[in-house]
Amino acid sequence: MQRSLIAVAALCVLCVQASGAVAANDAVADRAIEHSALEFEEAWYTGNAPRMAAVLHPSFTMRHVGTDAATGRSVLDQDVDANQLVELTRQGHGVVPAAMQRHDVTVLDVHANAATAKIATWYGVDYLQLARWNGRWLIMSVVWGKTPGVRKPPNPLHHD
Question: Where would I find the beta strands (DSSP E) of 36-159?
Fold first, then answer.
């Protein structure tokens, strides 16, 4: 009986230790995911193409579903790959004044080498899917939604 109690106690200790290790690993993953998400958004806001390229997986895609004003039907009004986004970043399409550079990151879920995060921005919300790729959290895809009525300020680098 006493051996059984000792074995159960030892098992409980191991479970608690493993749980602590998982929590520590989760915190490390969360920070790395947040870092990639912030790099993505800040690169866009500042027109920093190399910084943008560093966090995108080669198979990256970004999409926005809009609404056709005439028909009210859904339309895919943006379908951008990694090279296109890096070039749009280089051209300064996302540059806004520092005061508008809102980027609140929430890690929504992490499982093994896959994660989902949300960035609340000045223009709306970006939903990111990330993959741990060769030890780094890279962004595989983004689907974003624009807050109705939000207007971008004049961009000194690019006339949209």
Answer: 56-67, 74-81, 103-111, 114-121, 124-133, 136-146
